[in-house]
Amino acid sequence: MSGFDERQRAFEAKFARDEDVAFRITARRNRLVGHWAAEKMKLTPEEADAYAKAVVQADFEEAGDEDVIRKLLGDLTSAGVEISDAEIRQTIEAKAVEARRQFIEEQN
After folding, report:
1. Domain housing 71
2. Residue 1: band (very low, low, confident or very high) from pLDDT cuts 50, 70, 90
3. Is 7 part of a structural domain of the chain?
4. pTM of the model
5. Is residue 8 part of a domain?
6. How many structural domains is the chain composed of?
C-alpha cells in the first residue's frame, strides 16, 4: 500500500468519525430541545420523553433545522405557549452548546 492510499484511508476514516460525532451531537441537541419544549407545554415526564424522541425523529424529514423549528413552533403554539421563531432558534443554539459539552465530557 502506498503512502497516498494510507493517507486517503486515514482521511476517510476521520471524515466518517467526524460525521458520526456531528450526528450524535445534533440528536442530543434535539432531545434537549424537546425536553425544553415539553417543559414549556407542561407535559408529564413520560410525555416529555416521548416528545423529545419525536423531536429527534422530526430532524430526519429534511436537511437543516427547519423541520425541527417547524415542529416546535407548531406544537408550542398549539399548546397555547406564546413563543417566537427567534426564541426557538436561540434555544436550539444554546442546547447545541450544551449537547457538545455533554458529549465531550462523556468522552473523557
Report:
1. 26-107
2. low
3. no
4. 0.87
5. no
6. 1
